[in-house]
Amino acid sequence: MTTAVLRNELHTMIDTLPDRSLPAIKPLLFFLTNDYWKPIIEAASPEEVEMINERMKDYETDPSSFTPL
Q1: Quick check: 13 and 5 in contact, CB under 8 A?
Q2: Residue 31, CB-side half-sphere exposure with 13 Å CA sphere
Q3: Can you say whether the dihedral through the CA atoms of 7, 8, 11, 16 is positive or negative?
Q4: Which has fewest Cβ within 10 Å: 55, 56, 59, 69?
């Protein structure tokens, strides 16, 4: 199913919802359109920065010891 077809189906479903159901679905739609796409990214702690730097040095010393994703 293409995204366009799915969007059309969802629009149709929303358009045919009884008025009493609209308040129930609004929080879900709000969550999906706002919170989901804005993940919380924290700055690395000093310990995490040190671990990253150590791994980078290890890689620079011997790149063959790492397995690419």
Answers
A1: no
A2: 5
A3: negative
A4: 69
The residue among 32 and 11 whose pLDDT is bigger is 11
Please identify which residue in the block is written with the tokens 């730097």: 53
Distances (CA, A) of 63 to 14, 38, 55, 57, 59: 53, 34, 11, 10, 5
The distance of Cα 36 from the centroid of its chain, to the nearest Å, equals 6
Tokens of 51: 């671990």
Element (H, E) at 9: helix 3-16
pLDDT in tens, 25-52: 999 888 888 765 667 778 899 999 999 9
DSSP 8-state secondary structure symbol assigned to residue 16: H
Classify residue 34 by its DSSP letter: T
Amino acid at 41: I
